Amino acid sequence: MFITFEGIEGSGKSTQIGLLKDFLEKGGHTVLTLREPGGTSLGEGVRSMLLTVRDEEICPEAELFLYEACRAQLVLNVIRPALDKGVIVLCDRFTDSTLAYQGYGRGLGLEDICRMNSSATGGLCPDITFLLDIEAGAGLARAWSRLHAEQGVKEDRFEREEMRFHEKVRRGFLEIAESEERIEVIQGGGEIRSIHKDICAIIKRLSL
Ligand code: ADP
After folding, report:
1. What are phi and psi of 45, to 5 degrees?
2. Which of 89, 91, 106, 137 is buried most deeply by CB count within 10 Å?
3. Atom 5, ligand 1: which residue's CA is nearest?
4. Low-confidence ranges of the chain (pLDDT < 70)
5. Atom 10 (ligand 1): residue with closest C-alpha?
6. pLDDT at 151
7. pTM above 0.85, yes or no
8. Where are the domains of the chain?
9. Which atom of ligand 1 is found nearest the CA of 17?
10. Any idea what DSSP says for residue 93?
11. What residue ranges line ligand 1, CB within 6 angstroms?
12. What is the CATH code of the structural domain delimited by 2-205?
């Protein structure tokens, strides 16, 4: 079972992944949690490169290729082998994020991105995707207060961008969800425990 979580910054993805992991492990499952970009040496390296405030803007095309390179590495070396062993994989962001951020957000061609997504994944598709939907302002306020609470952590490149960009990305996610049956839209503005309960109810329906 391959489960992905999508949504803008601060929508609650990592919080819900942690709770779902505990829930599934209590049910006797082996669970692997991953984040994109990340999960491999290449992915973690690119992640820190992308998130560091720099004196050079990374152009959208370069950004797209970097994400897809990390994804290809992650799918081949980590996700597929884990799924083959019967491990449940929970991933914080996957192909829908690339469509939402690089496509709807930065204006790159959606069809090109879909082609690159399927080439990077070798056709691997999540069994289910939870889209945590929240207004850009509310999500960013959460993300920023978390970051500022951590000593020495600077705002990252995405979080310095305007609210309008994040609203565009949010609308992109919702549009993708309309055309993809695997995506469950969850109201991310609700209470942490009640969102977790809703997610567990959906997972139980999948007879896990
Ligand atoms: P993401 O991984 O989507 O960026 P996080 O799970 O890291 O989001 O959540 C960002 C911040 O918001 C964290 O400080 C977290 O504790 C808080 N948070 C997450 N979900 C909720 C929620 N439903 N209500 C209030 N605060 C939340």
Report:
1. -65, -45
2. 91
3. 12
4. 53, 146-162, 208
5. 10
6. 47
7. yes
8. 2-205
9. 6
10. S
11. 7, 9-15, 142-143, 146, 190-192, 195
12. 3.40.50.300
